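Case study 2.
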Amino acid sequence: MNHGPLLFFGVLATLAASWLGLVAVPRQQLGNLDADLSTNAANVVVTHPPARSGEATQGHAVYVSLGCAACHTQQIRPENGGSDLARGWGQRRSVARDYLRDQPVQLGSSRLGPDLANYGERLGTNGFNLVRLFDPRLVVTNSTCEGAPYLFEVRTVTGEPVAGALATGESGRQMVPKAAARQLAAYLASLGSSAEVPEAHLPAKEEAK
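Prediction:
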């Protein structure tokens, strides 16, 4: 008995089911996802994720080019999936909507360094980020990251100090961030995922007694 046609249709059905489950259904669920509009406590309509500045958008490209996703993730796991929330890396789990501004998305797969999904809201300003970019060990002594000193250049300063420059320990000389360093710092400062979204709610705040 010739089982060829039966085998062919069996393989075809298996491939079709895989395509439906891995491609078609997720596309149906997420393909039309858009930024979420909500009203905050101050009665102001906010968008999540917010649009990034041009400098931060360029910084995303720098982040990708340097391969930062090899050591850092940008995905806060749910409470039953790890200790991310307990560590204070975010107030809620990451959801697909958080990545609408990122092309390509930098989820990452290894955590040699901390998760960065909520970095801007946890650690803040560009100036602080520049120090970390130059040498993370100036902030965290046991950091395994070697930093990116090649994104800076030493300059002799004769007038006012350059804004955002780092001291070198030599009189009249500063470590000045290049454009790529400023862009990357702006991108890191833009990372935030603590906005309330329909898919993942923030923890309820305790009412004052």
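The helical segments are 4-30, 54-65, 119-123, 126-134, 179-190.
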